[in-house]
Amino acid sequence: MGAMTGEEQRREEGHFRKVEGAMLYIEDAARRLDETAQELKKDGAPAYLIAALETAAGAARADHARLMKSVYWRAPSSDQGELLAAGDEQQRLAS
Hints:
Structural class: mainly alpha
């Protein structure tokens, strides 16, 4: 694979900034869902509402992690964004 030109590098950096901005929205949504769940708990709201918010917050965090992996640990030979098992590899090395 050849070296990128300055123009190509600037374009790619711009793409990554946009993706990172989107990831911040997801992270913020998860935080707000958690905060709202905590507020409802304090107010004695029904458990199903709290559970729904907590489930949504967990799903947002999982989506954020999935997006991070697909953006930063994409298998180099794949245009479809297959993921490298980086977490699995790190776990095996740590044990």
